Structures are given as C-alpha cells and as structure tokens.
C-alpha cells in the first residue's frame, strides 16, 4: 500500500464547479407522451438500491411530465460505443414549445428514436418500449415522486421499482443471472465528458472546458 503524506490535505484546491457530475452512468429513460408516442430522456442522475432505481429530473423536462402522468418507464443503459448516439440526443427536447430556459441550447424533436438511430423494442411489463441497442434495460414503475421543499428548486426525485430486467447475452455470465462486469462497458458521464472504462471517448456539447 502506498503511504500517504500527513500533509496531503494541504494540496487540495477549494473550487466551485458549475456541475457535480463526478462520474455516473448515462441512462436513457423512455416514457410515453400523451399522444402515445415515445420520448427518450438522456440523463446521468440515477442510482440503484435493491430493486429501486432513483431518478433525478428537471421539472420542466418532458420525461418528468410523462413520469408523473404515466407512472412507468424503461431505464435503458447504453454501452460506451453508443456515446455518439447519446450525444445526438443531448441537445433535443420532447417539450413543445421548448421551455424558455432551454431555447438557447435545445430544440424540439418529436422522434428521438430516428434522431439517434435507435430501434424500438416492446416491453413485457410496461407500455413504453425499450431501446434495442442498449444491452441493459430495466422496465420500471414509479413508486414515488419527491418534490423539493423549495418550489424554485427545479428538480424532482423519482423513485421507480424495477419490474423486469433485460440483458444482452454478450454481457451475461453463461448459465447465471449475473452481469459480467468484464464484458459490460457502460457509458459514463464525468463532468460532461463521455468515458467508458478506459480512455475518453468524446465530450458533451455542454462541456465547459
């Protein structure tokens, strides 16, 4: 084990980063719009505990509106090789008209499957489809939506319960129900840059450096 200097704390810099995406998986959440079409919401504010997946959403997003109304979704996890398709979705929104605070960087797109080159795949337990190109897909139903005490907070915390998990055979340990971490290379979002489990793959259009 490498010995740490007693003064190592002295070398840290006090910084004020604009965002705290310190390294989380990219998630593509499919939800159903009011007209029955499908929205794809890319995000990186998701974490799992047992059969619960918690999602953080901006209140002005189409995904948040759909989750509140439909109470179900699919949490699709793209692999690192899909980073360009994910970035194609990044500047798009399913809200029409586009919210005022997004007009400078986002545009309305009703068909996000076509925009990203993705294929729709039917689900088993929910009405909304899965994304066929994503090797790991979690069908889920909303169990709770937590609204911040501060109405200006702008975010909802959405708890979902996973009803069914789909995994491509390439990432499953043969004869088991376990994901093989040596073969599963999730796309990670690190301070608005895309990584797999190796070298950087690209950068988000919102990256500031």
From TrEMBL:
Its cofactor is FMN. InterPro entries: Flavin_Rdtase-like_dom, Flavoredoxin, Split_barrel_FMN-bd. This is Flavin reductase family protein. Coiled coil: none annotated. Belongs to the flavoredoxin family. Pfam families: Flavin_Reduct. Residues 19-179 form the Flavin reductase like domain. Keywords: Flavoprotein. It comes from Fodinicola feengrottensis.
């Amino acid at each position: 084990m490498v010995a740490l200097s007693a003064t190592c704390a002295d070398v840290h810099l006090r910084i004020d980063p604009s965002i705290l995406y310190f390294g989380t998986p990219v998630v593509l959440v499919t939800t159903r719009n009011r007209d029955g079409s499908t929205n794809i919401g890319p995000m990186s504010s998701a974490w799992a505990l047992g059969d619960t997946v918690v999602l953080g959403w901006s209140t002005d997003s189409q995904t948040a509106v759909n989750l509140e109304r439909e109470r179900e979704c699919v949490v699709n996890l793209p692999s690192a090789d899909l980073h360009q398709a994910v970035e194609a979705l990044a500047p798009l929104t399913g809200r029409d008209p586009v919210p005022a605070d997004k007009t400078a960087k986002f545009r309305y797109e009703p068909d996000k499957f076509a925009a990203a080159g993705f294929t729709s795949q039917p689900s088993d337990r929910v009405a909304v489809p899965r994304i066929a190109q994503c090797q790991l897909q979690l069908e889920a139903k909303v169990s709770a939506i937590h609204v911040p005490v501060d109405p200006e907070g702008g975010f909802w915390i959405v708890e979902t319960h996973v009803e069914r998990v789909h995994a491509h055979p390439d990432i499953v340990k043969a004869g088991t129900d376990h994901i093989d971490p040596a073969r599963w290379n999730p796309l990670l979002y690190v301070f608005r840059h895309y990584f797999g489990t190796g070298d950087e793959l690209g950068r988000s259009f919102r990256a500031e450096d």
